[in-house]
Amino acid sequence: xxxxxxxxxxxxxxxxxxxxxxxxxxxxxxxxxxxxxxxxxxxxxxxxxxxxxxxxxxxxxxxxxxxxxxxxxxxxxxxxxxxxxxxxxxxxxxxxxxxxxxxxxxxxxxxxxxxxxxxxxxxxxxxxxxxxxxxxxxxxxxxxxxxxxxxxxxxxxxxxxxxxxxxxxxxxxxxxxxxxxxxxxxxxxxxxxxxxxxxxxxxxxxxxxxxxxxxxxxxxxxxxxxxxxxxxxxxxxxxxxxxxxxxxxxxxxxxxxxxxxxxxxxx
Length: 267
Description:
It contains 11 helices and 8 strands.
C-alpha cells in the first residue's frame, strides 16, 4: 500500500489513502509485509486490524546466497577500493525519505576516528546532485563513491563489508534482506518492522542516525574482519529461510486456501 507517510507529497498521499480505503472495503483480506506496516495502516484508518494478514516478502536470493562471507578482492580492485578499506554500502533511491544526507553526516563524524571507512552509494534519484555537493561540503568526497543505478548488485555486495540504511520509513528494507543473503552484516535505523531482528547474533545492529553505529563497523584488523564475516553468516542463516520466494508462494497459497474455505462455509 502507498498511503504510508513520507513517500509522496500530501495531495498524492491523500489520493492513495482514499483509493486504498475504498478497496479495503470490498476486499476479503489485506496483505501487509510487516506488523509495523499493519500498525501504520490501522493508524491511518485504512482498515481495522482484523482485516490484515502479515506475509513478509519473498525474493530470488540464489545468486546472493552463493557469495563468500569475505569480500572479493577482484571486485574491490574494479571499484578502486583499497584492501584495508572498510566499505559501507547504501542501496536505494536518492530521495528524501531515505535520508542519505544523514548517512553522509554520520560518515563525516566517524571518519576522524575511523579513517578506513569508505561509502558506496548505489542508486540514483532527484537528490543525487545535492548529495554529491553535501559530500564535498563535508570534506568527505574522497571517501564516498556515487555508483548510480546498477544491475550488478551481486558484484557490488561481494566487494563490500557492511550494508547501511538510514531511512525515516520503510515497508520492508529489501536492500538489507539482500545484504543478509550475501552474508553481509548491516547497520540500520529502526524501520520496516525489523527492529526486533536487529540483534548482533543475527548480523544486524540498530543504529541511531549519528556516527556511533558507522564508527563501530570500521575496524580493519583480522579480528574485526572475522567478526563481520561471522555476523554476516548469521544474517544469511536468518534471511535465507525467511525471505525466499518459495516461502512467499507457500504463505499466499495457505491464505487463499483459508479464504476459499471460509467462503464455502459461509455460503
